[in-house]
Amino acid sequence: MKKVYLCMSTDIIQTGHINVIEKAAELGEVTVGVLSDKYVAMYEKYPILPLEERMRIIQNIKGVSKVVVQNDIYYDEIIRELKPDIVIHGDNWTDGYQKAVRDRVIEVLAEWGGELIEIPYYKSSNLHLFENAMSESRGLPEVRRQVLRRKICSGEVFKVMVAYDGLSALLVEKTSIEKDGERRQFDGIWISSLCDSTAKGKPDIELVDLTSRLNSVNDIMEVTTKPIIFDADTGGLVEHFVYNIKTLERMGVSAVIIEDKIGLKRNSLLGNDVEQHQDSIEHFCEKIREGKKAIGSSAFMLIARIESLILDQGVDDALERAKAYVEAGADGIMIHSRAKSPDEIFEFADRFRETDKDTAIVVVPTTYNQVRESEFKEHKINVVIYANHMLRAAFPAMQKVVTSVLENERCYEASQDCMSIKDILSLVPVE
Ligand code: SPV
Ligand code: MG
């Protein structure tokens, strides 16, 4: 009996998949390689069902003899191991990023005289309904939260980009590039107090109230499916925080970060140039404990942000606080720094990991921006937030336009730097 191999990455089994499996079973004994979460996420969206569940479902489809994990978008390793006589696939992978994958399958199969069989890709007229349903379920609060949790556990760096309104969120949601044979995209969205305030022409001092910030959350939720990490500043009074964290959970936020400052909060990057104070460990732990008690979803994350490095209190102080905050129930620690070098962040991460292997570490490399994500991964840092770049990029472009219109007393010159109306409209989804 011939050995037949095929790879599946889907969450939802539909007729096209069954067609491929039926055809494969006619040709021989079928092994299905189920693509691991990391690679599904890289090329499509993060799967709703984790690998184990997808494997179990596929194992139980008639005609499938065996399932294995395919740990790369490229088939090389797994097919060299299994040496199938036939690899089977739909005929819809001859362009885009899949072309390179297909070419490599043909090349590797040739090593033992294996054959690639392609069958006509079946596109159900209702496929768009499936896709819409999938997209809607990806946007559900609980699904976003699960994705954040699962991806953090995977050991890969969870990349987060700021958004401050629907349009900037759409860019974070939709932008992907292909590089070094991989598709890259952001994993989540940061709702920054700095950007929310600045976009409203207000200082970053907890002046923009929660109701107003929730409007931005709502706009962003509506047009995206990625997990949302909300910057809740200090969280305010404990008595208020227990209500506000529930509201954020209900709104669909995936994680909330509160920082251990007290009194009038100033932006961290101003450091000790302005008056700002760190909370006591006891009081901040109480806020964490009460916040955790208030939330219902086990996937929702409360992350404690440590300002010791911002306020020149040193790594020892940050580590003491991190330990206490985790004991109080924090699901993650954000360690912030305004240094140009990442040394103190790496020292913190390495020493924290000596005793705590699991708690998520979050960083915001605004000042030590030379560090690549791979280096954060080496230091077992889980989440990297690009906290303000969208807003900082938009402002100079707008400044150039207003200056140009004043200088020229017409908008012809400025129009050269503007996106066309058609293009800007095409960014926005139409039902
Ligand atoms: C924000 O983006 O609002 C932050 C990060 O809190 S920072 O501005 O660096 O303090
Ligand atoms: Mg902030």
From TrEMBL:
Pfam families: CTP_transf_like, PEP_mutase. SUPFAM superfamilies: Nucleotidylyl transferase, Phosphoenolpyruvate/pyruvate domain. Residues 11-98 form the Cytidyltransferase-like domain. One of its GO terms (molecular function) is phosphoenolpyruvate mutase activity. Its EC number is 5.4.2.9. Keywords: Isomerase, Pyruvate. Belongs to the isocitrate lyase/PEP mutase superfamily. PEP mutase family. This is phosphoenolpyruvate mutase.
